[in-house]
Design brief:
The complex is a heterodimer of chains A (153) and B (201).
Chain A (H helix, E strand, L loop, with lengths): L9 H13 L2 H10 L6 E16 L8 E15 L4 E7 L3 H15 L1 H32 L12
Antiparallel strand pairs in A: 1-2, 2-3
Chain B lengths: L16 H17 L5 E2 L12 H10 L5 E4 L7 H10 L2 E2 L8 E4 L24 E5 L3 E10 L7 E5 L4 H10 L8 E6 L2 E5 L4 E3 L1
Parallel strand pairs in B: 2-3, 2-4, 4-5, 5-8
Antiparallel strand pairs in B: 1-9, 6-7, 6-10, 8-9
Helix pairs in contact in B: 1-2
Classes of the chains: A alpha+beta (153), B alpha/beta (201).
């Protein structure tokens, strides 16, 4: 595993960015409001909404094809000591992208990493996992298995 | 690719991207329509060196992921180039001949004008637009400009350009309608020299 100079792996960052992007805005806002000392930050990219082409593979194999466009909002934040956080979240919620980017910046900062990881990400992860599981269950219920009957001789 | 930019040193661009881009576009339009007229970019932000405010604003307004861009120092670690790549998402290319836009920060050692894209007969508008960061721009004495957008004639001077540059510019008149369009910038001021303008003196 390759750690960068701040002590986290690319995979770890992907994970927390995914959790931040997939959580509800009100949960992120709660965590933010609970922070005793709010860090100073500035916008490198203010939250802006655009569309992204989602590509996928049918059944998880074969060539990927353009599945469709989704609306996404992105934001890039710089906290006072220079760490830069980014967020790409589905939908139109500017505040969601902003908070996710702030937390991403804080998580990259060795000074804040442990605190945010324990108090924010781990808590968000529980509801994120639950939410994902629900969606997976709902989707699984609609699954259709195709099969071909062999014609008798 | 983005990881090679020094993110920690980045500064913000336009504070209001929509309005500021529109105002900058308007300024460039005004300058292009009136060759030699000095137009002021009324905005404030801190672009990294070697970019001046006017060049940075023009790039933020005109460059995006579909435009190709060339400048003298192409390394992502170069503060100006990294900043433009981050904010504009433009692709930085090695060959000035393929560039939609080129930024020149040291006009004394710039490539000859025919090393940029001059367009082709079917699509003369595919040529490179040069943004040249020069010394002082002045409209009181210097070259005599005539052509579309100028009622009689206007006077115009840019400090820091070589004689070779003006010779190059002169020889471009022979290949019209091909050729490059040029925007000169200095601090928060800009002036344009489109290919239609005739330069004398």
């Amino acid at each position: 595993m390759q750690f960068n100079e701040n002590g986290y792996t690319k995979r770890q960052r992907q994970q927390w960015m995914g959790i931040l992007a997939g959580s509800l805005t009100k949960n992120l806002e709660n965590s933010w409001q609970k922070m005793p000392e709010k860090p100073e930050y500035k916008h490198l990219h203010k939250p802006e909404t655009g569309s992204i082409m989602v590509r996928g593979r049918a059944g998880g194999s074969g060539n990927s094809f353009n599945f469709g466009e989704v609306t996404a909002t992105r934001c890039t934040i710089q906290i006072k000591n220079g760490h830069v956080g980014s967020a790409y979240v589905l939908g139109l919620d500017h505040r969601h992208a902003e908070l996710a980017a702030i937390f991403d910046a804080l998580l990259q900062d060795p000074l804040h990493h442990c605190e945010i990881s324990n108090s924010v990400v781990s808590r968000l992860k529980d509801s994120y996992d639950k939410h994902k599981e629900e969606i997976a269950k709902k989707t699984a219920a609609t699954k259709v298995d195709f099969f071909t009957m062999v014609r008798g001789e | 690719m983005l990881s090679s930019i020094d993110l920690n040193k980045l500064t913000p661009g336009f504070s209001d991207p929509v309005q500021d881009s529109r105002q900058t576009f308007r300024a460039v339009l005004d300058a292009m329509a009136h060759p030699g007229r000095i137009v002021i970019i009324d905005n404030f932000f801190s672009p990294p060196p070697p970019l001046n405010l006017a060049s940075a604003a023009i790039c933020l307004a005109l460059l995006d992921f579909e435009t190709t861009f060339w400048t003298e120092d192409l390394k992502a670690k170069a503060p100006g180039t990294g900043w433009l790549r981050f904010h504009c998402g433009c692709s930085v290319i090695q060959n000035p001949l393929e560039a939609d836009f080129a930024l020149i920060t040291s006009p004394d050692i710039m490539p000859a004008l025919n090393e940029f894209n001059i367009g082709n007969d079917e699509n003369p508008e595919f040529s490179t637009t040069l943004i040249i960061q020069a010394g002082r721009l002045s409209a009181t004495k210097g070259k005599r400009l005539t052509g579309p957008g100028i009622e009689t004639f206007s006077t115009f001077n840019v400090e820091g350009l070589t004689n070779r540059f003006w010779q190059d510019r002169q020889s471009q008149s022979a290949i019209f309608p091909l050729g490059v369009d040029i925007i000169f910038t200095c601090e928060n001021r800009l002036a344009a020299l489109p290919r239609t303008t005739k330069v004398e003196g």
